[in-house]
Automatic annotation (TrEMBL):
Organism lineage string: Bacteria, Pseudomonadati, Pseudomonadota, Alphaproteobacteria, Rhodospirillales
Pfam name, any one: Aminotran_1_2
Record-linked SUPFAM superfamilies: PLP-dependent transferases, Winged helix' DNA-binding domain
SMART domains, sorted: HTH_GNTR
Keyword annotations of the record: Aminotransferase, DNA-binding, Pyridoxal phosphate, Transcription, Transcription regulation, Transferase
Family to which this protein belongs: In the C-terminal section; belongs to the class-I pyridoxal-phosphate-dependent aminotransferase family.
InterPro entries from the UniProt entry: Aminotransferase_I/II_large, HTH_trans_reg/aminotransferase, PyrdxlP-dep_Trfase, PyrdxlP-dep_Trfase_major, PyrdxlP-dep_Trfase_small, Tscrpt_reg_HTH_GntR, WH-like_DNA-bd_sf, WH_DNA-bd_sf
Name of the featured protein: PLP-dependent aminotransferase family protein
Sample GO molecular function, one term: transaminase activity
Domain of life of the organism encoding this protein: Bacteria
Ion transport in keyword set: no
UniProt xrefs under CDD domains: AAT_like, WHTH_GntR
Keyword rRNA processing among UniProt keywords: no
Length: 461
């Protein structure tokens, strides 16, 4: 018999809906595996001191969202869902708006890579690129990544640059240098799923901090810091994932002042910063001795390069080197050499500019398609590849995710990003994975129709 008991402290609203929300969270976080048998209605009612009718309504809500299913004589089980297919291997007709991958307009990355690899084969010291190198990266590669980060107002000395195998590895490397198992890290109430996964793997507690239309709420952050348990803050100030919010200068100043006052380190994720060159200066420019600033060429250049980097306080170098050595020994020198050459010859700038243009084209198409059904995404920068759509009552994110999947569109809902109580549900549309703008338009139309409840465009597929 199942021992699952939901934690309702992080879920508000009617009790039946709170149970369904808790169930969705526990499935998303892995606490409830696919195929797990749930308690009977009577058993769960006894555990929670509720009526059987409330549990029946909660299970009905969860089944409507596609989370669970009942089998006569056997009980109620968490639905099995196949893992998402690798990019480029989705079944025909499926439109993937769930994976956030900025895309250029003409597949220029592959051509640039072919040309650069031929150059490397002809004139590079291949022995150096195939051998062991320093854990923090080869000196010339650290210089190139420093140039990728630096801009007026942002100092990025090469001796503070640490090469990583992408942004996810940068997150884990930085956390390994800042916190220990059992520590608490703060983040926005909806945040990048990779941060949640890293925290689970590293046995860290995550505390979601309330947000407003400007991003992380300073009062809520200070209240959490005042408790004395917060060791670090993870935040995405530019094109926050999933909401697309860009923190103002004033908001960045306020958060940094609080972090400095309470001695809280900040892990600043700036992987989308290249899409907004005019964005306010990053947090690392305000608090260089407490901010671990990360970026990655996976978003700005090409995911397959797997080269990311940290701009970190000098005093953390030894701890970061230990993290690199323990996990991957070193970032791949060959891919780092490709990045170095692209930064040097202007290829990197051209690829990033191309993605900004393509992001604007796709966002314009998606917003127009949504607006056909009276659905409006939250404001964000025109070049953003992801849109956040707040859901009107009584729409629920998991219900909409399931409905969209049935119609051949993959999207991500609040449950994928939530770290605490979320007052308003929403979904994120990622516009870069579809190969064409026409697919973006078709997918957005389906989502718009499902949100609005309209049925006038059943033929959009």
């Amino acid at each position: 018999m199942s021992t699952w008991k939901p934690d309702l402290s992080r879920h508000g609203g009617p009790r039946y809906r709170a149970i369904a929300d808790a169930l969705a969270t526990d499935i998303e976080t892995g606490r409830l595996p696919r195929g797990a048998r749930l308690p009977t209605h009577r058993e769960l009612a006894y555990q929670l001191r509720m009526t059987v009718g409330t549990i029946t309504r909660a299970y009905a809500e969860a089944e409507k969202r596609g989370l669970i299913g009942g089998e006569v004589g056997r009980g109620t089980f968490v639905r099995e869902r196949p893992d998402p297919a690798p990019l480029g291997q989705l079944p025909d007709g499926i439109i993937d708006l769930s994976v956030n991958v900025p895309r250029g307009s003409g597949g220029r990355e592959a051509g640039a890579l072919a040309e650069t690899l031929m150059q490397i084969a002809q004139d590079a010291d291949l022995e150096a690129l195939t051998g062991y190198q320093p854990h923090l990266g080869m000196p010339e590669h650290r210089v190139a990544l420093a140039a990728l980060i630096a801009r007026p107002g942002v100092e990025a000395p090469a001796d503070r640059i640490v090469l990583t195998a992408g942004a996810q590895h940068a997150i884990m490397t930085a956390l390994s240098a800042i916190v220990a198992p059992g520590d608490t890290i703060a983040c926005e109430s909806v945040t990048f799923g990779g941060l949640k996964a890293a925290a689970r793997l590293m046995h860290l507690r995550v505390k979601g901090i309330a947000m407003d239309e400007g991003g992380l709420n300073p009062d809520a952050f200070e209240a959490a810091c005042r408790e004395g348990t917060i060791k670090a803050l993870y935040a995405v100030p530019t094109l926050q994932n999933p909401t697309g919010i860009i923190w103002s200068d004033e908001r960045r100043d306020a958060i940094c002042a609080i972090a400095e006052r309470y001695g809280v380190s900040i892990l600043e994720d700036d992987v989308y910063g290249f899409l907004v060159p005019e964005a306010p200066l990053p947090l690392v420019s305000r608090l260089p001795n407490q901010v671990f600033h990360l970026t990655s060429t996976s978003k700005s250049l090409a995911p397959g390069l797997r080269i990311g980097c940290l701009l970190a306080p000098r005093e953390a170098a030894a701890r970061l080197a230990t993290g690199i050595r323990t996990t991957i020994w070193m970032a791949p020198p060959l891919m780092a050499e490709v990045v170095r050459r692209w930064v040097s010859d202007g290829t990197a700038d051209r690829l990033m500019a191309d993605k900004r243009v393509e992001g604007a084209r796709r966002q314009t198409a998606a917003r127009a398609a949504l607006w056909e059904y009276g659905v409006e995404a939250a404001p964000t920068h025109p070049s953003s590849f992801h849109l956040w759509i707040p859901l009107p009552e009584p729409r629920h994110d998991m219900e909409l995710v399931a409905a969209a999947r049935r119609e051949g569109v993959l999207i991500a809902g609040t449950t994928s990003f939530a770290t605490g109580r979320v007052l308003a549900e929403g979904i994120r549309l990622s516009l870069g994975t579809p190969s064409t703008i026409e697919e973006v338009t078709r997918g957005a139309r389906i989502v718009g129709r499902l949100i609005s409840g309209g049925d006038c465009c059943d033929n959009v597929l």
